[in-house]
């Protein structure tokens, strides 16, 4: 029987996850559990504390952007951890480069933390340039009067179409890479396992397999929502010179991300028809970022989920 993704599960949970290299991370309110399949087939699990909630964690809009940044840091740390096991055999016996030795001598134990924050900042800058600056630059060549309300609307709609088109192209291209396909399979295993847990079934491979690889609370759905919300928000500030437009878009990113977070948070647990309409495009886009996992990948997802549940228990309810 095909699962209705929109059907209200028996147990609403805030537990989410992230696919890694040959593994995944399940994130609960207090701890995250990282499960990795080593080259020899063994599954290892490491638990890490989730960043503590700050004074901004209860403020709508603001909590979204702050939480996303913290999760990016946690996610990149987990990604680097998973990469260690894949590169272990290849790197064995190799001498560190001069650059590695220099950085290690200057930064010492803080090296990894510095590299992680640099990675997060670089990721944000890359995303802004590709999905914010470039679409605005393309739209600026439109032969329309952007000072009128109609012209401004057309400008923002075209900019939004270019942004969504770039997002689709980016997803389609990355999905053709062999290593990324395996990551998408782990992403599918993550969603299936969360569905199984939310429906209060025993976490076994057979039970998990029957659920969908798509989930309303997925990061892909969040990214698509960002694309749509950005069209509405940027329309309100009007059109100016190219550099002013770019500056305004960069400044408004936290607001766009915060609003998108609230929309996904509400629609992800609502049974209203409007929530289904909001979620549908994001679920369609998950066709790029999820794949059907094999049994061994589901086993890793189950191991991660079981370990995050040990300490979070019932505190994960929404």
UniProtKB/TrEMBL annotation:
InterPro entries: DUF1385
Regions that span the bilayer: 114-133, 153-173, 218-237, 243-264
Domain of life, per lineage: Bacteria
Keywords associated with the record: Membrane, Transmembrane, Transmembrane helix
The protein, known as: DUF1385 domain-containing protein
Organism whose genome encodes this protein: Acetivibrio mesophilus
Pfam families cross-referenced by the UniProt entry: DUF1385
Transport recorded as keyword: no
Biological classification of the source: Bacteria, Bacillati, Bacillota, Clostridia, Eubacteriales
